[in-house]
Amino acid sequence: MEIPFNKPYYTYKAIENIDNVIKSGKIGADGYYTSKCRELLEKRLNAKNLLFTTSCTHALELAVKLIDLKKDEQVIMPSYTFPSTANCVLADGGKVVFTEVNHDDLCIDTSKIEEKITPMTRAIIVVHYGGSPCDMDKIMDIANRNDLFVIEDAAQGLFSTYKGRQLGTIGHFGCYSFHETKNVSCGEGGAILINSNDEHLIRRAEYIRQKGTNRIDFNNKNVEFYQWVDVGSSYCPSEMLMAYLYAQLESMDIIHKKRLNIFNRYVNVLDKIKSDKIFFYSKGNDEEDFNAHIFYIIFKKADYADGFIDILKDNDIMAYRHFVPLHLSKMGLALGYQENDFPYERDLYKKLVRLPIYADMTEEELSKVEEKIIDAIKEI
Ligand SMILES: *Cc1c(COP(=O)(O)O)cnc(C)c1O
To answer: Please, what's the b/e burial string for 199-221 (b: 16 or more CB within 10 A of its CB; e: otherwise)?
Structure first.
C-alpha cells in the first residue's frame, strides 16, 4: 500500500451535513453552515469580520482590492511562495517586489524588507511557511513606520500562533486556505479576515465578494433594492462546501493533535541521526499552537534530495519537493528577475523535501516512514 504525501481527514459527519443542505434546498452561498463555520472560526481565532471565499487565492485578491492598489504600486513579498501570493498584485496592475526568506524557517527575512521600500510601496505580503510564524512584531513595526498595509498569506498558517496570537489576525488582512492539501479543508475554499473596525471597509469587502452588489444590505433589510454598487466578483462558497468544512472544523483539534504527533516523531528521528548530509529540518516552534502543516528536510546537496525521494518512492512512500521560487519561475523571469537574484532560494527548491503528514496516518504507516527515512539517509 502506497503511503501518500497527503490525505484529507475523513469526517463522516460531512455526509450528514451535506445531506441537510441538499434537503433544505438552500445550496447557494451564505446560509446555515456558512454562519456556523464563521461563528466557530471567529471564536477560535478570537477575531471578527471573517468572510469565506472560494479559495485563499480569492481571499488574497479581495485583500488587494480593499487596499485600492493603484497601477504600478509595489507590494513586497518573498520569492519562495505559491503563485497566488503574487497573482493578486499583478491582477490589479501592481508590481511585485520579491525578497528573501530566512534560511531555516523559510519565512520572510525581515532584515531585507526595508531596503526594498520606495515611495511606490503600498503593502507587504508575508507567508507563514508550513505554519511557522513570520516575525510579526518586526513586520508590523516596519509597516507602521512606512505607512504600509500587511496582508498575511496564512494559507498554511491556520491555528498556528505568534506570541499567543493566531496567525492571520495580526496584519491588516489575513487570508486562509481550505484547499484539499491544507490541514482543514473542503476541497477548494478560503477565508479572509479583515482586522479593522472600519465599517466602510467591511461593507466593501461584502460588496466585492457578492458580485459588486449590496446583497448584504438587502438581506439585512437595510435597503429596498438589491443593486450594483461596486466593482466586484463572485467569491462566495456554496453551502455544500461549508457543510463539509463545518465537519472538518469540528475535528480541528483532533487533526491538530495527530499532525503534531507525526511531526514530533520525525523531529525525534532526525535528532537521533544527526546526519551531516542535512542542512536543516523542521523544528516547529515553542508556541503552544503549532499546526504542523509541513515537515521538511533541507539537504546540503540537490543530489541527496533526489536520492532520498527515489529511495522513499521505491518503498511506496511519497515525499515531495515544494515551491519553485517565483523569481526564477517562467513568470518571474518574464517580470525581469534573474535566476541568481536570490542564490539561497535558487538552490533551496532542489534541496528541500517534504515528508508525508496527514491526520489519518496509521501507526504502521508512520513507523514504516520513520524506518525508511533512516535507511535512505544512510544510503544517499
Ligand atoms: C495553498 C496556498 C495558497 C493558495 O490557496 P488556495 O486556497 O488553493 O487558493 C496561497 N498561498 C500559499 C502560501 C499556499 O500554500
So the answer is: eeebebbbbbbbebbbbbbeeee
Residue 201 CA to ligand 1 center (angstroms) comes to 24
With a pLDDT cut of 90, the percent of the chain lying above it is 94
**Using CA atoms, how far apart are residues 295 and 286, in angstroms rounded to an integer?**
16
Query: Which residue from 56, 57, 186 has its CB within 8 A of the most atoms of ligand 1, so it is best to mutate?
Result: 56
- Largest Cα span, the chain: 72
pTM over 0.85: yes
Lining ligand 1 with CB less than 6 A are 55-57, 81-82, 84-85, 127, 153, 155-156, 177, 179, 190
Q: Quick check: helix, strand or coil at residue 293?
A: coil
Number of C-beta neighbours around residue 100 at 10 A: 21
* pLDDT of 220 above 90: no
Dist CA 354 CA 310 (whole Å): 13
Name which residue sits closest to atom 1 of ligand 1, judged by CA. Answer: 155
